[in-house]
Amino acid sequence: MKTTRPTITNLGLSPDEERHHRMIRYSVAMGVRVVCLIVAVLVPGWWAAVPIIAAVFLPYIAVVLANVHADPRRGEAQRPGNILPMTPPPAGGGDPKQEGQ
Predict the structure, then answer these.
(1) Is residue 2 part of a domain?
(2) Looking at the domain assignment, is residue 48 inside a domain?
(3) What distance in Å separates the CA atoms of residue 54 and residue 48, rounded to the nearest whole number?
(4) Residue 57: left (phi > 0), alpha (psi -120 to 50), or beta?
(5) Of 26, 21, 18, 15, which is closest to residue 63 (Cα–Cα)?
(6) Does 90 reside within a domain?
(7) CB neighbour class for 77 (10 Å; exposed up to 12, middle 13-18, buried from 19)
(8) Could you count the other beta carbons within 10 Å of the beta carbon of residue 30?
(9) N or C, which terminus of the chain has less Cβ within 10 Å?
(10) Number of independent structural domains in the chain
């Protein structure tokens, strides 16, 4: 049976990189919102309601999309399972049975 060894590529993005990616996604969505507002001013008649409605609901959608973790590297960080705490050696430095003889 082949076991997988944990590597550094199993780890997710650092918090700074993850925040950077979320900010980019949110900024793009807010850019689309600004375009919707400009289009609402330029479009005549009741068709202006469509981009206005989009501009109203887009902030909610932008927050949800920005907080979705879509990193393909994202996974569970694998931790070693056989690490046991080490007990310190006896203070005398030797075997206590041999010292009494």
Answers:
(1) no
(2) yes
(3) 10
(4) alpha
(5) 26
(6) no
(7) exposed
(8) 14
(9) N
(10) 1
Per-residue pLDDT reduced to its tens digit, 14-57:
788 888 888 888 899 899 999 999 999 999 888 999 999 999 99
Q: Which H helix or E strand runs over 3?
A: none
Residue 60's domain spans which residues? 14-69
What pLDDT score does 41 carry?
93
Instruction: Indicate whether 20 belongs to any domain.
Output: yes
DSSP conformation letters of 11-79: S---HHHHHHHHHHHHHHHHHHHHHHHHHHHHS-GGGGHHHHHHHHHHHHHHHHHHT----TT--PPP-
Q: Given this model, what pLDDT does residue 90 score?
A: 79
Contact 67, 22 (CB under 8 A): yes
The b/e string for 9-25 (b: 16+ C-beta within 10 A; e otherwise) is eeeeeeeeeeeeebeeb
pLDDT number for residue 84: 62
